[in-house]
Amino acid sequence: MTLDPFLLLRYAHILGAILMGAGLLGVWLADLRSRQVQDLSLYAECARFVALFYDGLVVPGALLLLASGGILIALYYDGLGFLDHPWLVGMVGLFLFEFIEGNTLTRLHFIRLKRLSVLSEKEKCLSNELRETRQKLLPTLAHFLDLPMLSLIIALAVIRPESWDMFFAGTITAFAIASGMTFWITRLFPWAERTPDER
To answer: What pTM does this model have?
Structure first.
């Protein structure tokens, strides 16, 4: 029995999407939990879970997607021939946007939060720097954009529209969902001005 390289690459690609999706969902849940706690040790634990999901699932999944997707395009779409397919160009463009944004703005934001939370936990005092960093809206918006964008990428892969309508409508919808979550969740679970230890 000979294995079809195309099927193996598709399997690797799907596996990468599963790993990345599971990691992003874990990051989202850990971040949501961190917004509900006031105890510094619990907050620091949530920050460590965020880092664990990023490094353990999101990054390996993204790298597997990047490698398998690049090989699939090179071998089965004649290199630049993929530019003739709006759904594929949209997938590549959105993935690269998310890959760059996720490994710069969002990742650096969570790394800083983890470092500040560990320092605050040691000092048993919620620092002003941690408060200010936690309340930044742009990294929060970028974080909440991850899951809607991944959903759009998967939708493009499944439906494969040959026009740009779905890409543009989906992108606008993803930003609207992320903006709504940024507005709603940050107000539903505002960062406490003081921890119980400070009261």
So the answer is: 0.86
**Does 177 reside within a domain?**
yes
Classify residue 197: in a domain, yes or no.
no
What's the CA gap between 30 and 13, in Å, rounded?
Answer: 26
Q: Note the Cα 67 to chain centre separation in Å.
A: 18
Provide the number of structural domains found in the chain.
1
Q: Which domain holds residue 77?
A: 5-190
pLDDT in tens, 153-177: 999 999 999 999 999 999 999 999 9
What integer pLDDT is reported at residue 34 of this predicted model? 87
Q: Indicate whether 14 belongs to any domain.
A: yes
